[in-house]
Amino acid sequence: MLRPRLALVFGLVWLAACGQFAAATPTPLPPTRAADTATPVFMTDTPAPTPTFVTATPSPTAAARPAGTELPDVQPLTPANAAGLTLLGQWASLGDAPNALAFTSSGRSLWALAFGRVWAWRARDGVLVRSAANVALSPDGQFVVETFGVSTGEASQAQQLVYVLRDTGNNTEVTRWTDTKPIDVSGCRPGECAALRFSPDAERLAEIEDLVPGQRVPVLKVWRRDGTLIFTAPGAQAFTFSADGTLLVTQHATEPPLNLWRAADGALLKSIAPGFAPAAAVFSPDSGRLAVAGAGRVQVWRWGEGTLEREWPADVVSLAFNADGSLLAAGSAAGLRLWSVADGQELPAPATAGGNGQLALAPDGSRLAVVIGQTVEIWGVPAGFQP
User: How confident is the model at residue 79 (pLDDT cuts 50, 70, 90)?
Assistant: First the structure.
């Protein structure tokens, strides 16, 4: 007899820096094919084979380099040099088109998520160095969290979901904790009934639960890395962390649809009503601004003051600020769009049609990654470009 499952958010489990909400979904996660065991699937420490190179269309100034080839030196992307964006590299994905991208906080790796599996490429040359399935990975790759249900006939234990934190370097267990659910989760295999996301500083983890099948009442839960529950936010349907991991913004179905929290203790700092339900959100690097997108609009807020700073008509699915917050990049299936935050001017952007709109900017603004089909394109402004 089939047991009911938790319907949980399935978002970007290893980074929030991508800026897109991890959204709750009413559809339960599909069962895995793995055996019903508590043993997690970990990252590999040995570099994986170089992905197959997909021939790229040459840019006006340089040919795209295949994975395994060192990328050229670039300069940080700014509103002044945006016209110099050049296709630098094109790396093949390993199956389905990635539905989320993010650079690590150091900028050394580019991570991609596609249907429960994550990959990490070395940012300087596209060599695939890590892969994992059905786990939450910390941004630095040091920790992994796996979840599973307790197989038992006792009703109280049948509602216990186990969370196990491990050190990936030596595959040792650091800590574990349990969380009581209102339904039977004893049949949940590893990674099947929870989708956690680490904060960028790896100090906290968060997830959104849809606890009651049929009612779909989502709840955000935020834990410290040791398993201590910090706070819950009933009704939160999506969330994203700030770049330093100290702030958290949640989307709600009721007005106002955005709440900003202090991640360390769950203090509610601000509520914002952009006039629509955001599909994507990202903090600026200094955490002073919040960019949101939805309903054919992109907005930039000074969230501390609760003031709307910029608004543009655009239907996009992902957002990213450059290193100093002066430029906002947005992606959609129609291509890439760039704006200057200071004056609201739209900037020239290269043609990137044919993708699903997912993008990511390196923390130092040096490289822009864009999903095109089943590949990831890397764009940058060559070091010698003069505006």
Answer: very high
Report the mean per-residue pLDDT for the chain: 81
Contacts of 193 (CB under 8 A, 6+ apart): 5, 6, 8, 29, 147, 149, 161, 185
What does the angle CA 335 – CA 73 – CA 75 come to, to the nearest 5 degrees? 65
Taken as a whole, the chain contains a residue count of: 387
CATH class of the domain defined by 7-28+41-382: mainly beta
Q: In which band, very low, low, confident or very high, does the pLDDT at 225 lie, cut at 50, 70 and 90?
A: very high
How far is residue 190's CA from residue 136's CA, in Å, rounded to a whole number? 11
> What is the phi-psi region of residue 244: left when phi exceeds 0, alpha when psi lies from -120 to 50, beta otherwise?
alpha
Separation CA 85–CA 108 (nearest Å) = 20
Residue 260 burial (CB count, 10 A): 22
Q: What is the pTM of this model?
A: 0.82
Q: Are 312 and 53 in contact (CB under 8 A)?
A: no
Tokens for 263, please give them: 């991640």
Domains of the chain, by residue range, sit at 7-28+41-382
